[in-house]
Write a structure and sequence with these properties.
The complex is a heterodimer.
Chain A (H helix, E strand, L loop, with lengths): L1 H12 L3 H25 L3 H5 L1 H9 L5 H17 L3 H7 L3 H37 L9 H27 L3 H22 L1 H4 L3 H8 L10 H25 L3
Helix pairs in contact in A: 1-7, 2-4, 2-5, 2-7, 4-8, 5-7, 5-8, 5-9, 7-8, 8-12, 11-12
Chain B lengths: L1 E10 L2 E11 L4 E5 L6 H8 L7 E6 L10 H4 E4 L11 H12 L6 H7 L15 H13 L5 E5 L7 H16 L3 E6 L2 H4 L5 E6 L2 E7 H4 L3 E6 L2 H11 L3 E3 L5 E4 L3 H11 L3 E7 L1 H17 L1
Parallel strand pairs in B: 3-7, 3-8, 5-6, 6-7
Antiparallel strand pairs in B: 1-2, 1-4, 8-9, 10-12, 10-13, 11-12
The chains are: A mainly alpha, B alpha/beta.
Bound molecules: adenosine-5'-triphosphate and magnesium ion (MG).
């Protein structure tokens, strides 16, 4: 199993995928954090320094996770796009092992991106707070809980992408479907049926990064729920891989 | 050894492979021949566990592919559909496979040299020609120094030098005791290299034979009254066979003797010749492909 994970890591490092996507994910997160400080704070120290203000600002760190999800999709569905799935399954005919290795690499990548964006967004936030005349409360537990949430969130989004790409093998379809879901579909569903909204994946994610919105699950429940989505999709993906021809 | 047993694969009600059985023994190059769409690739994909057979089995040394302890070490495959990530270099393509297969010290440089890609090995595969990709696929197949080689139209995209190179390689592998199966829709491409042929059409077996059995010296005769000639040959105790093109093929007789039999039977000979191995095989394959085209 270790060598399969190593091989999946090598696959990622030997294409140019991360070169574009990871800096873009970090940039989106930082832009989100900076934008929230400037817009949300509106020059009001008290708002910025409140627990809600800090959460609002730091939860914007999660904005880049959508690109990590796209990377996850490409890790799986890309094998069909480029026809490398044959070689992969010739090496590892027990296909669930391939998906397990991809999930491991995806979650590792998500964690790494989460760490980088979290540290960078603290830096950005601290600088912008001081230009706004406020003090960023580094010693506040809110800060660290929110950032811990970001790590979990980014890792789970990567796994969600890997799982989705194994289920929907058409990479373009999987990426557009996922983007449409998170940008449009879930919001529409929430408006139609507010009661179920909190149980949907994007809302579960918002709970993990402690976005100050009403009606969200607790961060732990959100984590469990989003993980359940990822596992359920991955299991369907395993079924598909085992029964459908490559 | 490869054993295909009553293999059937159905796509949407249509049988791509139909109750196909044949064996490819170790130490021989087995040519797997059939016109386009005959089911060669489908058979190979079933054999390699990439496609689930509808019924029947395809076994490698008695095992289904997915049950092999170390598949890359046991079997090397070149498939027509195999793709490459365009941004990955040739060397990295091989490194990925070696890593996944758990090969600790893969001999990547000697392999790249063997397939003639050493100077291109650090370039992205996206910039490779068709022939270079084919060479990379051959290198990938050989990474694990496998006992069994399954080659689906390996000459695709290779130049004439490359085609004769792959023929020599197959010869060497078989002489080392490996099992080599090579598919082609062109007989000429593999005729000189194979020890055995399996010919299929519409997913069904047409002929399975060792070349040695197929083409011991034979005389071919064409006459005006074929039935009378067949009776005369029967009476003379000659081992004979009516070919699909209407000629009669007779085992190990010299032409004068066959002419004599014809004369005594009162039939007129319109053509009388010795057919070598290549010609017999060619006539046989031509008959198959022509029938398939009707
Ligand atoms: N995935 C698939 N879905 C539907 N039909 C298929 C599929 N793969 C193959 N077929 C059909 O099965 C038959 C056999 O195809 P196959 O590719 O095995 O032939 P082949 O002998 O390899 O031909 P060629 O010499 O052209 O490579 C064809 O009629 C083809 O259309
Ligand atoms: Mg084919």
């Amino acid at each position: 199993m270790i060598h399969l994970v190593a091989a999946e890591g090598l696959k990622l490092r030997t294409t140019r995928l991360l070169l574009g996507m990871i800096p873009a994910a970090v940039a989106i997160s930082l832009a989100g954090v900076a934008g929230t400080v400037l817009v949300h704070g509106g020059g009001d120290r008290a708002v910025l320094e409140s627990a809600k203000g800090v959460r609002q600002v730091l939860s914007a760190t999660g904005a880049g996770a959508i690109l990590v999800l796209v990377v996850g999709i490409i890790i799986s569905a890309g094998e069909y796009r480029y026809g490398t799935a044959d070689d992969t399954f010739l090496t590892t005919p027990r296909r669930h092992q391939v998906l397990a290795a991809k999930l491991a690499v995806g979650s590792g990548l998500g964690l790494a991106v989460g760490v980088v964006t979290s540290l960078a967004s603290i830096g950005i936030a601290a600088v912008l707070y001081s230009t706004e005349g406020a003090t960023f409360p580094l010693d506040d537990a809110e800060v660290w809980l929110t950032l811990a949430g970001t790590l979990v969130y980014t890792a789970l989004f990567a796994m969600l992408g890997v799982a989705l790409g194994s289920l929907v093998r058409n990479q373009v379809l999987a990426v557009t479907g996922a983007l449409a879901w998170f940008a449009v579909v879930e919001h529409a569903l929430v408006n139609l049926a507010p009661d179920i909204g909190r149980w949907l994946p994007a809302a579960a994610g918002q709970a993990i990064i402690r976005t100050p919105l009403d009606g969200l699950l607790s961060p732990l429940a959100g984590t469990a729920l989003l993980a359940t989505y990822a596992v359920a999709i991955a299991l369907s993906g395993i079924r598909v891989a085992a029964t459908r021809d490559a | 050894m490869i054993e295909v047993r009553a293999l059937t694969k159905t796509y949407g009600g249509q049988r791509a492979v139909n109750e196909l059985s044949f064996t490819a023994p170790a130490g021989k190059v087995t040519g797997f021949l059939g016109p386009n769409g005959a089911g060669k690739t489908t058979t190979f994909r079933c054999l390699l566990g990439l496609v689930a057979p509808t019924s029947g089995a395809a076994l490698i040394d008695g095992c289904a592919y997915r049950d092999l302890a170390s598949p890359r070490h046991h079997v090397g495959a070149v498939l027509e559909s195999t793709g490459f990530h365009p941004a990955r270099t040739g060397r990295n393509h091989l490194r990925v496979i070696a890593r996944a297969a758990g090969f600790d010290a893969p001999r990547i440089d000697p392999l790249l040299e063997l397939v003639g890609l050493q100077s291109a090995s650090d370039r992205r595969v996206g910039g490779y020609s068709l022939g270079m990709r084919q060479r990379l696929a051959i290198a990938a197949a050989m990474l694990g120094d496998p006992e069994v080689l399954v080659l689906d139209e390996p000459a695709n995209g290779l130049d004439p030098e490359g085609v004769s190179w792959i023929r020599r390689l197959m010869r060497i592998w078989a002489d080392e005791g490996r099992t080599v199966v090579v598919s082609s829709h062109l007989l000429a491409e593999v005729a000189q290299a194979v020890d055995r042929v399996v010919i299929i059409r519409d997913g069904t077996l047409v002929t399975e034979a060792d070349i040695a059995d197929l083409t011991a010296d034979r005389v071919t005769v064409r006459v005006d009254r074929t039935d009378a000639m067949l009776d005369a040959l029967q009476a003379a105790g000659a081992d004979h066979e009516l070919l699909a093109d209407g000629a009669i093929s007779i085992a190990a007789r010299d032409t004068a003797e066959i002419g004599g039999i014809a004369a005594r039977a009162g039939v007129t000979v319109t053509e009388l010749s010795r057919r070598g191995t290549a010609e017999t095989l060619e006539a046989m394959y031509l008959a198959v492909t022509e029938a398939g085209g009707q």
